[in-house]
Amino acid sequence: MKRKSIVRDISWLSFNARVLQEAADPTVPLRERVKFLGIFSNNMDEFFRVRVATLKRMAEIGSMKKLNMHLEQAPDKILEEIQMIVLEQQTEFNRIWERISEELQNEKIFLVTERQLNKDQQRFVQHYFEEEVRANIIPLMIESIPEFPYLRDKSIYLGVVLSRRDGSMRRKYALIEVPSKSLGRFIELPSPPGEHHIILLEDIVRFNLRSIFSYFGYDRFDSWVFKVTKDAEMDLDNDISTSLIQKIEKGVKNRRKGKPVRFVYDKEMDQGLIAYLIRRLNLSRKDVILPGGRIHNFRHFMDFPDVFAKKSQRKRPLRHPLLQKTNRVTDVVLQKDIMLHFPYQSFDPVIDMLREAAMDPEVSSIKITCYRLASNSKVINALINAVRNGKAVTVMIELRARFEEEANMEWKERLEEEGVKVLISIPNLKVHAKICIIKKRTNGRTLHYGFVSTGNLNEKTAMLYGDHCLLTANRAIMMDVNRLFIYLEKNKDGDGILKAMNTLIPCPTGLRKELDKMINREVKNARNNMPAAITLKVNSLSDEDLILKLSEAAREGVRIRMIVRGIFCMYTENEKFQTPVRAISIIDEYLEHARVFIFHNGGDEKVYISSADWMVRNLDHRVEATCPVFDEDIKKVLKNILEIQLSDNVKARILDNELRNQYVTSEGGKKIRAQIEIYNYLQEKTVNKLEAVPQEIAPQPVVIEKAS
After folding, report:
1. Cα 394 to the center of its chain, rounded Å
2. Most distant CA pair in the chain, distance
3. How many other C-beta atoms are found inside a 10 Å radius of the C-beta of residue 115?
4. What is the mean predicted confidence (pLDDT) over 173-186?
5. Which of 290, 228, 278, 230 is nearest to 93 (CA)?
6. 493-513 exposure pattern, b = at least 16 Cβ within 10 A, e = fewer
7. Any idea which residues carry the catalytic annotation?
8. What is the pLDDT of residue 428?
């Protein structure tokens, strides 16, 4: 029987293949192509740590119903398909890296191994090793250790075979963790004029193996890099006597002891050492064991040294036109809604509004949610400033944000030391909504203002992620934001207060039902020969119930257009669809992260921004906020941005049933690269305060007709 939807994990691998396409694209600057290799590798590591690990657990238990998981087929079958695709992608990755290596050499950038060093470089490497590296390595003679040593998940290791050329001593195996976390992976060497010679840290260690193991009397030292990826899912026990903080601390520690789910090694590695490592790591044929090249952990290549002649010129974020002639963001927001479009527009007004509130004597309280924060967060700085200025500050910080648990626990401690009220948990729900409410009393009136955002309150990622943030004093929106905070503070009272919300649509109680209603309304209009259309932008679409609803809408003639960056599980090609479903994915310099929903609604268009993707986890297991856009100017800009993206014929790929990732092509028309055109559009609005898309890329009006 044919599956109703594309397997989620296979769709994710197709997304990562689009990232790999960027690394292969010769029109992308070389530095960015190297970075995309790093992004692909980092994505794959996380995929194995989380998704593959979960599937392996399920396969071992053998019961999908027991785990209440939504899977398209048996986990062992999915794992087999993953293994096949991963091997194909690894081959393609190696091919792309070989080509990029040649191009690096053409630009006089050379990755030098320990065997290619000239005399000056040898002296540099010996000195660097003694001064920087030796104190950071611990060689392990693994055969003499009864219990195999703990291997870190994100580290790379040198497996070393010690021997004598005359065979007079028995071979020994050793391990060395490469200390890239503390020293970095790339070291620039003394180089000839006009050239850049770079050596990897593991090759510096290799060059000094004789010195490291001089005690043992061996004269031959062979070494190969390998890495292990471990199960990173966090088990939080149900011991009611244990606080959430203690459970997370325990979970982080246990994560370090997770079972290996992938073993990647240099294909030239000694066969005896391979067999020994596989046995000691308790790996089997069912595990993903991948032979690779000399270099592993390409995720570090996201931080490749900037030695390129051609520098990519990232444009400076724009100041929002309504904020051009004012020193106070708050004054404008109290008069008119403002929507910021990151990274094209600056994140500074968000920080400025918080800083103004911190020092405003009329402000009494600030409440805000935090999920992923910058390492030296200006948001946190502004909140600490506020509490020191006598404001009542409440911060909901999600301690279970994956891979941010330790950082968020540190933020919690710092905020509490300053006197901030920190909320940390709702049982069985992650808080993913991005909201803020500020209370101000002026001229005998109490005012509430704040924001609802699609992305994290992180000034660093706001320069790289495409998101929308609504700064508003709209009473209906702020009333519901306040209700949401009451729920977060007093969730023992149940979800009745969420159901009382009239403007924001919350998860887990409201969004699924509202989406059903709005899709049904479009279906009804289509059946009545009325215009009917749905335009979606999300990160992921995998919820089977909503996929079935969208498929029903397409069969009835509803015009459906979607921009989906990552997981996309819907079959778009179906002969029963009266109107073809159009779905694209854009992978480019910035990460497309926004969620926007537009429903034609019989001509009275409904436009929403949201923190929620169309996935079971977001709709049913997280606290999310979906916010209507009321301001007609903002609606127009938001719709124009989506139309520009739907017009992309440079970086857009078609999402089809076969996961082919074919580029959208132009038929003799203008090349439209959405991320560049959006910046130009917003820049033109900033300068000229125009309301329309530039004429040469303006979308043509579409008459939606019922198919005969």
Report:
1. 27
2. 93
3. 8
4. 96
5. 290
6. eeeebbeebebbbbbbbbbbe
7. 432
8. 84
Single-letter code of the amino acid located at 646: L
- The H or E element spanning position 221 is strand 220-230
Beta bridge partners of 537: 563, 596
Give the C-alpha distances (Å, rounded to integers) separating 210 from 7, 100, 125, 139, 181. 50, 32, 14, 12, 24
Q: Which of 16, 6, 1, 2 is nearest to 547 (CA)?
A: 6
Q: What is the 3-state secondary structure (H, E, C) of 31-81?
A: HHHHHHHHHHHHHHHHHHHHHHHHHHHHHHHCCHHHHCCCCCCCHHHHHHH
Cα 117 off chain centre by: 38
Bigger pLDDT: 688 vs 708: 688
pLDDT at 71: 63
pLDDT greater than 60 at residue 2? no
CA dist 329 and 332 (Å) reads 6
Give the separation between CA 368 and CA 450, rounded to whole angstroms.
Answer: 9
Residue position matching structure tokens 């009917």: 532
Nearest by Cα to 452 from 382, 506, 398: 506
Count of other CB atoms within 10 angstroms of residue 180: 19
Strands 652-654 and 582-586: antiparallel
Token pair of 376 as six digits:
């030296």
Beta bridge partners of 392: 365
Specify which residues 639 forms β-bridges with: none
The whole-number pLDDT of residue 152 equals 86
How close are the terminal C-alpha atoms of the chain, in Å?
A: 30
Report residue 598 CA to chain centroid gap: 24
Q: Would you say 339 and 608 are in contact if contact means Cβ atoms under 8 Å apart?
A: no
For residue 473, pLDDT beyond 80: yes
The Cα–Cα gap between 135 and 182 comes to 11
Q: Which has more confidence, 614 or 667? A: 614
Strand blocks (E) in 71-153: 109-112
Closest to 637 in 3D by CA, of 320, 406, 357 = 320
Report the pLDDT value the prediction gives residue 256, as an integer from 0 to 100.
57
244 near 430, Cβ under 8 Å? no
**Whole-structure pTM over 0.85, yes or no?**
yes
